[in-house]
Write a structure and sequence with these properties.
Distance between the termini: 5 Å
Number of strands: 0
Helix content: over 70%
Order of helices and strands: HHHHHHHHH
Radius of gyration: 18 Å
Length: 239
């Protein structure tokens, strides 16, 4: 399998999902809830408890993105391979609309909804509860991070052979900063508070990513970009 520019784009989409308004401000709350302790604890044992629970949490939401979204995109994409050009163009137009919405140039009220699900009540803090919370929150985040997730799904439909891998890379982009926050605890929380000041910039960057991918897909230039990056990528990096 050759290199695809979709991989770094999928990772960027995952990272920007972490920085989204429905995820970033609540990261300390999620970490405190799944670990059953405050992130203010500075002891090594406290940090390890937070990090181990965070691993279960990200495993839960990664499973949802890969199995619930990645597998269907791969199977449907392969079945509709003959229409891939039109799927890419239609998906590209939707992504341009998503990008304009994210930059607040147009308004799509349906994308401003966040489901709040009450999960884990009655369960003691533990890895099973953390994983369950992760799988459930993946669904509750979907309306908010939907445009960025939709970007990766569109790429998956355009490249069905890489569908599961693209969603895996997306999940990694969302999981990595979450785990880094859990590992660094209070220090990372201070950084997150500073980052929230630049939420408008993050929204613009997210919108530009979506709109840019959309333009490439509509114009048919995405495959050209893939070919270019494949030509300059060392052979040992090719998948």
């Amino acid at each position: 399998m050759t290199f695809s520019v979709g991989f770094p784009l999928a990772f960027a989409a995952g990272f920007l999902s972490f920085l989204s308004p429905c995820v970033l401000p609540l990261v300390p709350v999620y970490l405190s809830y799944i670990s059953g302790s405050s992130l203010a604890e500075g002891a090594t044992s406290g940090r390890w408890r937070v990090f181990s629970q965070a691993l279960a949490f990200v495993a839960g939401f990664s499973l949802v993105f890969i199995v619930v979204f990645g597998l269907p995109a791969t199977l449907l994409g392969q079945g509709l391979q003959r229409y891939s050009i039109w799927i890419a163009r239609l998906g590209g137009m939707v992504l341009i609309l998503f990008g304009l919405h994210t930059m607040e140039i147009v308004k799509l009220p349906v994308l401003n909804v966040t489901r709040r699900l009450d999960v884990g009540r009655g369960l003691r803090p533990g890895h099973m509860r953390s994983a369950l919370l992760g799988t459930t929150l993946a669904a509750s985040w979907t309306p908010c991070i939907g445009p960025l997730l939709g970007t990766v799904l569109t790429l998956a439909f355009s490249e069905p052979a890489r569908g599961v891998l693209l969603l895996s890379v997306y999940a990694a982009g969302l999981a990595l900063p979450f785990l880094l926050t859990a590992a660094l605890a209070t220090q990372a929380i201070a950084w997150l508070k500073r980052i929230q000041r630049y939420m408008r910039v993050i929204k613009i960057a997210s919108g530009l990513l979506m709109a840019g991918v959309g333009v490439l897909l509509v114009s048919g230039r995405f495959s050209v970009l893939n070919a270019y990056f494949a030509s300059i990528t060392p052979e040992w990096l090719l998948l």
